[in-house]
Amino acid sequence: MNKEFNITGKCIPSLHYMVDTSAKLKAITTDYIDKGRYFVINRGRQFGKTTTLSLLTQALDDTCLMLNVSFEGSEALFESFVSFAEGLRGIIYKELKTKRSRFAGIFSKCPFAPLSFMDLEDRIQKLCQKSKKPVVLLIDEVDKASNYEVFSSFLGKLRDMYLKRDEQATFKSVILAGVHDIKNLKKKIRPESEHTTNSPWNIATDFTLDMSFHPDEIKTMLAQYEEDHHTGMDMDAVSERIYFWTFGYPFLVSDICKIIEETPLAWDSNGVDEAAKYLLAKPNLLFDDMVKNLDMFPELNSMTRSIVLEGASVPESNTDQIINIGKMYGIYRADENRKIIIANRIFQNTLLDYYSTKEEIKGIISRYLCEESQFIQNGILDMETVLKKFSIFMKSEYRDQDSGFIEREGRLLFLSFLRPIINGKGNYAVESETRGSKRMDIIVFYGGKEYLVELKIWRGESYEASGMQQLADYVKGRSGDKAYLLSYANLQKSPRQGGWQTIDGINIYEEIVAYKDKML
Questions:
Q1: Domain spans, the chain
Q2: DSSP secondary structure code for residue 339 in this structure
Q3: In the chain, at which end, N or C, are there fewer CB atoms within 10 A of the end residue's CB?
Q4: 482: number of CA atoms within 13 Å, CB side?
């Protein structure tokens, strides 16, 4: 059977092209399971948690007795303590019947009385005593249990068994997998008035392994595909470009590859850029889930908007609940300077589109975009004309605004202006690393070409000179020779002219966008 790229459910090595995660599985085994850790693999939606548990089960099946449990579709388990104990007994019985049938009888149904938590604990101890191999319990889709007190009691039971592991037989390791961590599970279980970060499972070890896919890991999946299809792709270049858009988010990595194969697009950097455009345009439950979480948590929404549109510099904090929620849902990550940024460029563009479509400016913008031909000539985007037209738009509609408004809304207004011009034929990416310096670098992709546009607020001649040099150096670092600068300036204080200039061999076009420009 021909393999394919999979974006739904568990990945199976014999059926799907997959990243080689053997190093990650070894790290989980060595750093957590071999040391008898109880821990939670909590990552965002579609981050490969179920696939990881499946591969871990296969890798350890010769050395451990692996009990793989899922709470997917098992809501009835949580109706009572009895139903949970009996339901879990039945799940473990089926697992043992398949894997270690000689132990299945330990978890056979009791004909005389309902199973209690104490009876369940006794059976677990008996299994662990009889098994010559250490027993490892894996529970997937733990979020399904998060609203039920009975599950909190079960966590407490596991905790008690862990603390008595020197006195009685018990699981060597317990792994829970889901989006939420144990602290957030506990907050969902307790009434609002009793919220606390204390957990009935406070013996859990923090799971810090990076589960995103790095370029060398993405390359292992491309190598499998190349062996079957002989495309002649430059696997280093393609894997780096996929990483550029996804930052290794597993679902996004596979989806871009799937789009390239099925469209079909070229297996090169341009093909990856086109696939990212397709991905952003199609319906996606992952994006829907991200928007739902923003709507659910207004403070998270406000912080995210500030990061995306205002260039807010948010330092990483392990005690900030909003930051932790954003990281838990996979929306945020910390950069090398421990600043909170959006997790990847795909999410970043999704959020930019989300905020721009919520604003009531599309009708105003449409009056300035009546003819596509003024921006596109022979399939080439005329970025100079785009910036000039945007400047006219700003002078006409927003010239009486103050600098605070420009800092809050200037980026959104430009991206809202740009989107319909390149919509369906081009794409853009925001360089988030530059946000903390009150500037935004946008890379626009159109017709196989890249256009670097920097947005900034003009703050004086000295800042202008150093900013121009920084931009020129940045363009050189990307092996380019041209860039565009959009400067928001208060022309009441200091009238300025834009135009082309050359800095160290780099051609830079600057367009001045006036606010507080009542002289015009």
A1: 22-194, 215-282, 362-520
A2: B
A3: N
A4: 9
**Strands 380-381 vs 376-377: parallel, antiparallel or unpaired:** antiparallel
Question: Which residues are within 8 A (CB) of 11 and not within 5 positions of it... i.e. 6 or more apart?
Answer: 18, 48, 51, 254
Minimum mean pLDDT range among 14-23, 110-119, 359-368, 411-420: 359-368
Give strand pairing partners of 334. Answer: 340
Tell me which DSSP letter residue 206 carries: P
In this prediction the pTM is 0.86
List residues bridging with 177 in a β-sheet.
41
User: And the tokens for 215?
Assistant: 């370029």
Rounded CA separation 191/187 (Å): 8
Residue 64: which residues within 8 A CB-CB, separation 6 or more? 33, 133, 134, 135, 136, 172
List the alpha helices (DSSP H) in 454-494: 461-477
User: 253-257, 322-326, 355-359: which has the minimum mean pLDDT?
Assistant: 355-359
175 with 138: CB under 8 angstroms? yes
Separation of alpha carbons 294 and 275, rounded Å: 26
Nearest CA to 502 out of 453, 458, 468 is that of 468
In 3D space, the residue among 294, 312, 315 whose CA is nearest the CA of residue 440 turns out to be 312
* CA gap 118, 319 in Å, rounded: 37
Give 487's strand partners: 456, 512
Rg (CA), the chain: 27
C-alpha–C-alpha distance, residues 260 and 344, integer Å: 19
Q: Name 357's Cβ contacts closer than 8 Å, sequence gap at least 6.
A: none
Q: Which of the pair, 77 or 270, is modelled with greater confidence?
A: 270
The CA distance from 139 to 41, in Å, is: 10
Domain 22-194 has CATH 3.40.50.300: yes
Q: Are 103 and 130 in contact (CB under 8 A)?
A: yes
SS3 128: helix
Judge whether 349 and 359 are in contact, CB under 8 Å.
no
- pLDDT per residue over 37-59, tens digit each? 999 998 998 999 999 999 999 99
- Sequence-distant (6+) residues with CB within 8 A of 110 are 119
Residue 408 pLDDT exceeds 90: no
